[in-house]
From TrEMBL:
Signal listed as a keyword: yes
Keywords carried by this UniProt record: Signal
Domain of life: Bacteria
The name this protein goes by in its record: DUF3299 domain-containing protein
Signal peptide limits: 1-20
Length: 145
């Protein structure tokens, strides 16, 4: 009996680990280059990403990444995860577009701006919609460190 419980436990642990999220670092997301492109709809130029092979392999995968939480417009559900704190994030000139992810949470988070958190969600790559970040995590949840 104990042997059966032990083997069942090992099997369930193996299945869980096979479906667990993949830990990703900011370095992993840096496999991208950018080209300036004119968008008639906004009469302006924007950096358009050309994702590298290793980043393309992450698309659609459940990933987990740690960074600084940015609450840009909580009433509208606009949240970001940044490689850098708010004072030196992408929007303030401290990094490139690859250093920030847009987060679409399952439930409204209770994190504070600049709190270090780990976020898990499905990675979506965005090269076309200038109203959203290049990296988007959907169905996200997280925890503070």
């Amino acid at each position: 009996m104990i042997k059966n419980v032990f083997l069942t436990g090992i099997f369930l642990l193996t299945v869980f680990c096979m479906h667990a999220q993949q830990e990703v670092t900011w370095q992993d997301l840096s496999d991208v280059s950018f080209e300036s492109k004119y968008f008639k709809s906004s009469d302006d130029y924007f950096l358009v990403p050309d994702f590298g092979k290793s980043v393309k392999e992450l698309e659609g995968e459940e990933i987990s990444i740690t960074g600084y939480f940015l609450s840009l417009s909580p009433e509208d559900g606009v949240y970001m995860l940044s490689q850098n704190p708010m004072a030196s994030c992408f929007f303030c000139g401290g990094g490139g577009p690859e250093s920030v992810l847009e987060i679409k949470f399952k439930e409204k988070p209770s994190f504070k701006t600049d709190e270090v958190v780990t976020i898990t969600g499905k990675l979506k790559l965005n090269a076309d919609d200038i109203n959203h970040c290049n990296y988007i995590l959907t169905g996200a949840s997280g925890f503070a460190l």
